[in-house]
Write a structure and sequence with these properties.
By secondary structure, this protein is α/β, with parallel strands linked by helices. Helices cover about 50% and strands about 15% of the residues.
């Protein structure tokens, strides 16, 4: 009977989760429509800024139980709508046409206006909370950056704190200026290897000095495992450190071993506190071969190796990997956040390169 009881509890929990999601979708739908209504009034000169203030005062005076509709809140709703209007791709991701008559319902009495609300509850933007949206609004200026963090929050199920951490670590700029920038930004696949792994990681939460040992790095990551996994991505599951492999009559130890749920494979991390050296690849490939022969299960994919170095020379890495048949990747780690201005300049350079030459016929 206990199994039956567990199933009932699971049904209850799933129903509660669905209810929370439905409430959030309705709330985002409401804020978007309120922003749309006021934005249209302002753009057609029917209203002025003073009218928005008067509306806020009216709501607070006559309906004090309605929270979040002060002047600041209303302008956030306007910004929300104007960032994602009807023709925006995140809104149009709805499975139904927004112009369908059955998706429209009166938002207020027809005596006041003929404005009709649009149901956007099937669009991407309702899949994160209003607090997530406000965090993105307040910290992300570029539309591409906002879309990036919306999709990332959905894919990784980020809390607001986790989202804020990724924005602080300049994840968007790092993704855009990485060697795999296009695949990182454009890919929607959760199991795309280039989407899962970065070519640069930031471990500012370790507070390590510039000169540190591999042991210092490993101990710091173990002590701050939650932050480490947040930097890696949520699908990583920690298996162990100094993971023992027996090959013949010798023992070998992998610095950190993880399992990735999306890729369904073991991921071995080797830590190097200095620059990348070609012989590091041979060592890591040896570990991967041992993992695949003795640890990997039949249904799992081949193991992946990540070599984390304090610095790397891309040309040396490319030569070292060109003849490597194992899925091995080399990434650089930083002990401090990158300078925002430098990343922004690199990001601007990418967009300049993508602009068509006006002198071309």
């Amino acid at each position: 009977m206990e199994n039956n009881f567990i199933e009932i509890v699971q049904i209850i929990k799933q129903s509660r989760t669905n209810a929370i999601k439905a409430v959030n979708a309705e709330l985002i739908n409401l804020y978007w429509n309120v922003g749309r209504y006021i934005s249209n009034k302002l753009n057609h000169a029917d209203w002025g800024d003073k009218t928005v203030t008067e509306l806020s005062a009216y709501i607070q005076r006559n309906n004090p139980e309605l929270k979040g509709f002060n002047s600041r809140g209303l302008y956030r709703m306007i910004q929300f709508y104007e960032s994602y209007p009807e023709n925006h791709k995140l809104i149009m991701s709805s499975s139904n046409s927004l112009s369908s008559e059955n998706q429209e319902s009166a938002i207020v009495s027809s005596l006041m206006t003929q404005f009709k609300a649009i149901d956007i509850k099937e669009s991407i933007i309702v899949r994160i909370s209003w607090t997530h949206h406000m965090t993105i609004f307040s910290r992300c200026k570029l539309m591409e950056e906002r879309e990036f963090y919306i999709k990332l929050s959905i894919r990784e199920s980020y809390s607001v704190r986790e989202l804020d951490r990724q924005i602080s670590s300049s994840l968007f700029e790092r993704a855009m200026t990485s060697e795999n920038s296009k695949s990182v930004i454009q890919s929607n696949s959760k199991t795309d290897i280039e989407q899962v792994f970065k070519d640069s990681y930031v471990f500012d939460f370790l507070n390590l000095p510039e000169k540190h040992s591999e042991g210092d790095l490993q101990n710091g990551l173990l002590n701050r495992m939650k932050d480490f996994i947040l930097e890696l991505g949520r699908d990583f599951i920690f298996i162990g450190n100094e993971y023992k492999l027996m090959v013949g009559d010798s023992d070998f130890y992998i610095d950190l071993l993880f399992y990735h749920r999306g890729l369904q494979c073991l991921v071995a991390f080797e830590l190097k506190a200095g620059k990348f050296k070609p012989e590091h690849i041979g060592q890591l490939n040896f570990y991967l071969e041992a993992l695949d022969r003795d640890v990997k299960k039949e249904h799992e994919n081949p193991s992946i190796g990540i070599l984390l170095c304090k610095d790397k020379n891309n040309q040396v890495v490319e030569y070292s990997l060109s003849r490597s048949l194992s899925p091995t990747m080399v990434a650089k780690y930083r002990t401090q956040l990158p300078e925002k201005e430098l990343l922004q300049q690199k990001f601007n350079d990418i967009f300049e390169e993508e602009k068509p030459d006006s002198n071309q016929d």
